[in-house]
Amino acid sequence: ETGVTQTPRHLVMGMTNKKSLKCEQHLGHNAMYWYKQSAKKPLELMFVYNFKEQTENNSVPSRFSPECPNSSHLFLHLHTLQPEDSALYLCASSQDPGEPYNEQFFGPGTRLTVL
Amino acid sequence: DQQVKQNSPSLSVQEGRISILNCDYTNSMFDYFLWYKKYPAEGPTFLISISSIKDKNEDGRFTVSLNKSAKHLSLHIVPSQPGDSAVYFCAARGGGSEKLVFGKGTKLTVNP
Question: How far apart are CA A94 and CA A104, in angstroms?
């Protein structure tokens, strides 16, 4: 595997379910990100992890719970979601979050539908 | 309030011609700008970037131009190819933040 991978690629869940999204980066990067892309809206940053520590929570509801066990893996735990949470969830990584000109590499995303 | 705006949701050009994608921003603290390209069912991929100390950056068929006074940047693709058909996102960061702020994207279609 190369780059940034995400599983599952598609997920349909009910509002009472608990599920998790997984992201893995094979680039040796130190920072990982979760983004949400809703229809007709820009990508919205949700969480940032630098060296496994959460450094940003962009006012995300508590029904979204991130976990970063190491610099290569990032999870997004989902529980009691709402239909409006249906969106494309993208994971990204970057080499050095302190470096001003470092780019972020994205995974293919998980298309989430909440019924 | 959107800090990064891509006012054209779509653009259609003929193969071989120039594609010009535009992006405006409102935050004067932004000092680094990126363009990403996204194909369906894939994540965005980095295309080209520019820092605020420059006004132009070229990479093959792609040129990004920055007009700081107008808070405007553009992406030129020349010559355009059908494989360039994708959604293009403009993004910006600055003020010491690692947070990237994205525009809504412009869907480019290059017709053979």
Answer: 5
DSSP assignments along B59-87, one per residue: ETTEEEEEETTTTEEEEEESS--GGG-EE
- Beta pairing partners, B96: none
Residue A46 has phi, psi (to 5 degrees) of -105, -55
Strand partners, B57: B64
**For residue range B64-85, what is the model confidence (pLDDT) as tens digits?**
999 999 999 999 999 999 999 9
Q: Are A107 and B43 inside 8 Å of each other by CB?
A: yes
- Single-letter amino acid, residue A75: F
pLDDT attached to residue A106: 95
The whole-angstrom separation of Cα B33 and Cα A15 is 38
Mutation test of the interface with chain A: which of B98, B99, B101, B102, choosing the one with the most A Cβ atoms within 10 A? B98
With a pLDDT cut of 70, the percent of chain A lying above it is 95
Interface of A with B (CB under 8 A): 4, 6, 31, 40-45, 48, 50, 55-56, 58, 90, 92, 94, 97-98, 100-101, 103-109
Give the highest mean pLDDT range of A24-38, A51-65, A91-105.
Answer: A24-38
Count how many Cα atoms sit within 13 Å of the Cα of residue A46 in the half-sphere of its side chain.
Answer: 26
- Residue B42, pLDDT > 90, answer no
Structure tokens at A114: 């909440």
The predicted pLDDT at position B51 comes to 92
Q: How many CB atoms lie within 10 A of CB A32?
A: 29
